[in-house]
Amino acid sequence: MVESIKPYLIHFITRYHQDISVYDDTFLKNAINERQAELGINTDSEYLNYLENNIEEASIFSGKLSNSYSEFFRNPLSFAYLAQVVLPQLIEKKKNSKEKEIRIWSAACAAGQEAYSLSILCDELNDRSTSDINCRIFATDISGDALVQARNGVFRTATLGKVCLKRIQTYFTCHEDVYTVIPSLRKSIDFSAFDLLSDNGSCPPASIYGNFDLVFCSNLLFYYKPEFRNRVLEKIGNSLARGGYLVTGETEREIVMGNYYREVFVNSAIFQKRG
Ligand SMILES: C[S@@+](CC[C@H](N)C(=O)[O-])C[C@H]1O[C@@H](n2cnc3c(N)ncnc32)[C@H](O)[C@@H]1O
User: Fold this and answer.
1) Whole-angstrom Cα distance, residue 242 to residue 246?
2) How many CB atoms neighbour CB 158 within 10 A?
3) What is the pTM of this model?
4) CA 24 to CA 49: how far, in whole Å?
5) Which atom of ligand 1 is nearest to the CA of 69?
6) What is the pLDDT of residue 257?
7) pLDDT confidence of residue 191
8) Which residue has the CA at smallest separation from atom 3 of ligand 1?
């Protein structure tokens, strides 16, 4: 452990009953440095003193630990591979099976950009294929604020940079700088609260039994210490159907590769469970 973060861990647990020790040491240290720089504070003892004497600072600091940034089609390579290879394969598999549903979970969905991107892909595939296969999408996050935004389905231009004009015209209504997803897209996703670190269940209760063909857990793992990353990966592994896929963020590939998964296509950050 980085020695200089120890006093912060103790401070947050004793004073605010918030266990920040689950976060990766380097991530915590960067958050501390960033906050100190914003305040023009140079030493840890000075910042600990500031935390002690400014009641609102703990929640400002906690906010730094919960980044909800997301984009539509955030990693274009992953989405292209899903559209061209993974989803068509899943459709073929389902055609020969009794289950006529592709089950998808966006496991840290932020304001829903990832889940809506997946819903767009599924809708386009349904239009092209003659099969009767449906996609069922569950999307969860720990943040209540993010889920409220997700259910509203209202976005500003900044998160839509990777959405082509045809998709914007088909799946959004636009008023000035504000884009709202069309009702059928909003209704295609079941949004709910779910803490990936909690011991209660391995999948969103609304999905009843998991059995997912595809799980997105993107840009979350690197916030946490290795033991908690492993816990999340194990939980997702338990929720995946046989032959199911896991998609992570580009920068999280190394974390997953050493684990229970193998990458299905080089640099794609798309994995299947081993064995
Ligand atoms: C940076 S966003 C990533 C959003 C999206 N997956 C993407 O890649 O664009 C990280 C999200 O993880 C959520 N999160 C953090 N810890 C979580 C946990 N223990 N359980 C569920 N969601 C969590 C945050 O609330 C945030 O919305």
Assistant:
1) 12
2) 8
3) 0.93
4) 23
5) 1
6) 85
7) 98
8) 219
